[in-house]
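Following up on my earlier thread - several people asked me to post the actual chain instead of describing it. Fair enough. Here it is, all 225 residues.
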Amino acid sequence: MSSSDPSDERSAGVPPAVAGASRPRFSEITIRDRGRLPHWERENAIYFITFRLADSLPQSVLDKIDSERNSILSLARRQSRELTPSENEHLNHLSTVRIQQYLDAGIGSCSLRHAEIAAAVTTSLTFFDEKRYRLFAWCVMPNHVHVVARIFPSHGLSEILHTWKSFSAKEANRILRTRGSFWQKEYYDHLVRDEAEFERAVKYVVENPRKANLHPWPWVWKREQ
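Reply from S.P.:
Thanks for posting it. Predicted structure:
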């Protein structure tokens, strides 16, 4: 993403492996700001993506992150300038360790523990693999999903996220016999800049279940190259 979702992402959770990494120059990207975090998008790029269940984080946590983020962004806008390195680092931190700890703690309904729902999410991720994007790694955690993927030209990141979330949400609501929002509208995306960052992101994804003490956990995959 650049760094958030069709709606935004109030911080889906950024792995420490990519947190604080340098952002691309403005001339290289398209910036979308549809929610609480801006998205920095480049065609045919590789992204680390996180999206989560609607009830995965307490409202108090989200409100505090919103307040801190808006304060930083509004100051830069009032001064008609770009964010400083320290401000960018602060924004990254808002969606890193604190958020990931909450997610891995298993807050909320954790509906993705249901095998049938996790399978539906997996189907949504893999259906257009090698057609609209190339998957390198993914894991479906109890209340969130991590993906590392290259988005092919002519397909936007928000379009891909909408497809993943729309199909899986319909299936989940059918299985649970519920209605309403299943996924948080926001999402987090990080533009992977180099091979070292790519390797760290993939490693983070495949090791996330183990670090969250999920043994065994079938909903994790890595492309063997």
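The chain has one domain: 26-222. That should answer part of your original question.
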